[in-house]
Design a protein that fits this description.
Layout: E1 2-6, H1 18-23, H2 25-38, H3 42-48, H4 51-55, H5 57-74, E2 83-85, H6 89-96, H7 102-119, E3 125-131, H8 135-144, E4 149-156, E5 159-165, H9 166-178, E6 183-186, H10 199-210, E7 221-222, E8 229-230, H11 233-243, H12 250-259, E9 264-268, H13 273-281, E10 286-290
Parallel strand pairs: 1-2, 1-9, 2-7, 9-10
Antiparallel strand pairs: 3-5, 3-6, 4-5, 7-8
Helix pairs in contact: 2-5, 2-7, 5-6, 5-7, 6-7, 7-10, 8-9, 10-11
Length: 294
Amino acid sequence: MKVYVFPGQGAQFVGMGKELYDTLPQAKALFEQANEILGFRITDLMFSGTDADLKQTKVTQPAIFLHSVILAKSLPDFSPEMVAGHSLGEFSALVSAGAMRFEDGLRLVSARALAMQKACEYEPSTMAAVLGLDDAKVEEICASVDGIVVPANYNCPGQLVISGAVKAVEEACERLKAAGAKRALLLPVGGAFHSPLMEPARAELETAIQATAVNSPVCPIYQNVDAKPYTDPTAIKQNLIAQLTAPVRWTQTIQRMTADGAATFVELGPGNVLQGLIKKIAAGVVTEGKQTIS
C-alpha cells in the first residue's frame, strides 16, 4: 500500500516550489492565490529569498505547506490510502486528503505560525535533540528536572527532541549526557514547540480551528497526538488543537501505518528528512520523495 507523508518545519530551502510555479499553470494560480490570502508575496521569499527569510516561523510554515499541498494537487496519480504529516505537515496532509479547503488550510497554518511565534515571546525557551537513548530513559530524566522540559518529537528510535524552558532543557541535556546519550544538543529554534509553553498559541488557534469547516478525508489520517487513524471531522479538529502542546509521535505513527499495511511511503514537499526517519523506524519499507512532478 502506497501512503503519503508531509514534512514539517525545518525542511525548507530557497527555491522550494519554483519549478512547480514555472511549469504548471494550475500550480502558479494556487501560489498567486496564496500571495493574496497572506497579504505578502511569499513566493518571492520561497523562490529567491535568503535562508534567514525562510527561517521566520511566519514564513516557514506556510511556505512548506504550500509546496507540499500544491505538489499533491499537481500529481496526476495522487490517490492516497493513508496520509500523515509531521507537526505542521498534518495540515498539509489534511488539505491534500480533502478534509479542508486549500484556502482554509493556508489561513490556519498562517494563524498557527503567528500564534507560535507570539507564544515564544512569553518566556525564554528552546528545544534540544537527544541521540542514543531509549525513549523511556529520556522521559524519566525530563520528569526529574525542575521546570518545564518534555519530550516533543519522537522522531525515530534513538532520536528524540525535548522542549521547554531554557534552563530546564539545559539541565536535562547535562543529565541525559551523563546517562549515556551520544548527543544532547540545543537546536537553533525560536521556542519550545510541542510543550506546555505553547498553551497561549493553542488557546488562540482553537477558536480558528473550531470555526473552520473540516470534512471527512478521502482516507484515514494518522494524527500526531496518538498515532491513530482518523476520519471523523470532530476528532480531527480536537487532535489538531491538542497537537500544539502535545508531542509528535512520529515513531509510533509509522509503526502503526506499517502494521496497517503501509509498504511504500512517499514524502511530498521540501527535503527528505521523513524518508530518513522512516527507514530507521520500519526496516524493509520503500521510501520515495517528490519535490516536483518531473
